[in-house]
Design a protein that fits this description.
The protein has 9 helices and 2 strands. The chain has a two-stranded antiparallel sheet. The chain is globular. 27% of the residues are buried.
């Protein structure tokens, strides 16, 4: 498989690009995507067989099961980062090794139903807080040590909208390629 084909499988919607400007409409759409993600994910994966859940979305990539559990890991960290930025002055967040978390026994073998339920509650809380951020709060920042960069909450919201769509596309594009629809 050529690099461009692998890149297409790895980034089916393209890589994240931060918006140049943040409008109310842009952020409202991003927050709605975050709010809707658990329901959309559940609709795509609940009818999959165990064999299908064990299928990697690309050569060398995670299985569908690992992608689902990764979303919970990543979005849990997002919520914690959100809360830190709201309660501390420009905190340096804790970096986590998503590749190692993805290889954990829970991510590799655990049933998906508890994670789907967890995502429902987590995303409800994330969207609730995000919808109620003031203009000033949207500009609060945290420092990400992996990138040695400051991120504003409004950028984080757009990043996690992309993250939801990115991993949903991993699943939907695999289902389409395999004829599972």
């Amino acid at each position: 498989m050529e690099k461009s084909e692998l890149d297409q499988l790895r980034y089916p919607i393209g890589q994240f690009e931060a918006p140049e400007t943040y409008t109310f409409q842009l952020l409202a759409k991003a927050i709605q995507t975050i709010a809707d993600f658990p329901e959309k994910l559940k609709a795509e994966v609940t009818s999959l067989t165990e064999e299908q859940l064990e299928t990697p979305y690309r050569p060398g990539g995670w299985t569908i099961r690992q992608v689902i559990h990764h979303c919970a890991d990543s979005h849990m960290n997002c919520f914690i980062r959100l809360k830190w930025a709201l309660t501390e002055n420009n905190p340096t967040i804790k970096f986590y090794y998503e590749n190692l978390w993805g290889e954990g026994i829970d991510n590799k073998t655990m049933p998906i139903d508890p994670t789907l339920m967890f995502l429902e509650g987590l995303h409800y809380r994330m969207a609730y807080v995000m919808k109620n951020l003031s203009e000033e709060a949207l500009k609060l920042t945290y420092i990400h040590p992996e990138h040695n960069k400051e991120f504003e909450l409004r950028e984080m919201i757009c990043l996690y909208e992309w993250h939801c769509n990115h991993h949903l596309a991993h699943i939907t594009s695999l289902k389409k390629r395999k004829g599972w629809n």
